[in-house]
Amino acid sequence: MAGGGARTAARVTGLAPSAIRRMAVGAPEDAIDLALGEPGWPLPAVAREALATVSAEHGTLPYGPNASRPELVAAVAEVHGQLNGIPTPGADRVMVTSGSQAALFALFSAHVEVGSTVLVPDPGFVSYGSLAHLCQARAAGYPLGPGGVLDADALVATLDAQPDVSLVVLNHPANPTGGVASAAALASVAEACARRGAVLVSDEVYRELWVGERPAGLHEAAGPDAGIVLGSVSKAYGAPGLRVGWAVGDPALLAPARVVHNAMTTAPAGPSQRAATALLRASASVLEEAREHVQVRWETAGRAAPGLLARADTARGSAGRAGASAARAGFYLWLPVPDDVAPADTTDFALRVRDTSRVTTVPGDAFGPAGAGFLRVSLGGPLDDLTEGLGRLAPWCEA
Ligand SMILES: Cc1ncc(COP(=O)(O)O)c(C=O)c1O
């Protein structure tokens, strides 16, 4: 029972606040935050200029079209086509949303039947399970390969073992593991989902943040009709606070999701749309700079805590190409806890580190049972924090 005798809807009870929030509550005031999953480099100049232009204008600030400003839709379409080597999708294939989070909400609401099953990566981004729960569906985790890479055979085996799968989520490069997907694995999963009539959603919000080797994408690997691909200005474009994301794919799958998104929030804020358009139009340079920021962070981690990087690289099976020369995707270090910490004690360990050494990470089991025994360490934040935070963490985990 909530206050005043009001009842909380059953589909909401059971949803816990995110582990990131739980780790923040009660943290020492001077704790360094290596838990937040967002870029810590400055908002690119083109976005700052667009926001300044909006604020200098003398006039109204209208809602704008439900489908978002046409020039933003066109910019998303053009960049998506270029980055995937496919023709520029039509406007009916692009749904602009309030962050990719709202795209997920709208797609789940539109396609996940009550009582059906949603396949989610284990470990995986916590929202996938929460959204399945909100839709009164069952989230079933599928296992990933070493280093969190997409193991298509394991996913298809999980799919074939479930009677009623409404939706399958892929996330690559992955939060929290940084794992990627090969083009062949993506094509194979797309084929299996089409055969089973499951909607395939490929969350690719970290894709352009690579070092050394660009990861594959679903539409690039399997064509523009293979599922829905999600993107966002929040990670690679350095602008999480704008709250602009998108979904690209089959218009018939997007149409009911648009209805949900309109009911929920109409469209992203007008100034955000203007800034997002500017970012997308400057895509080539903005993404190149973002990759430099990410590379600097991995190099900083290598200098500040080589033992941590080596430990994570050994666990992800990249001992041959570890350290500075390893290919990286995204900005998360997926770090095994020390050998003498039982996987079931991962959260206790993360809290001990937080309270003793004043550095906050996310315990891996927050992302699913297979995450037990790992910490997610974000390298995305300010560089000074990163050096200091990893320095505090290293003595706990380098053994
Ligand atoms: C894998 C993944 N997908 C989607 C999101 C949501 O991002 P946004 O709504 O800011 O686009 C996040 C945010 O952390 C994420 O890690």
Automatic annotation (TrEMBL):
InterPro entries: Aminotransferase_I/II_large, AspAT/PAT-like, NHTrfase_class1_PyrdxlP-BS, PyrdxlP-dep_Trfase, PyrdxlP-dep_Trfase_major. GO terms for molecular function: pyridoxal phosphate binding; transaminase activity. Residues 30-393 form the Aminotransferase class I/classII large domain. This is Aminotransferase. Its EC number is 2.6.1.-. Its cofactor is pyridoxal 5'-phosphate. Pfam families: Aminotran_1_2 (PF00155). GO terms for biological process: amino acid metabolic process. It comes from the Bacteria. Signal peptide: none annotated. Belongs to the class-I pyridoxal-phosphate-dependent aminotransferase family. The lineage of its organism: Bacteria, Bacillati, Actinomycetota, Actinomycetes, Micrococcales. Gene3D superfamilies: Type I PLP-dependent aspartate aminotransferase-like (Major domain) (3.40.640.10).
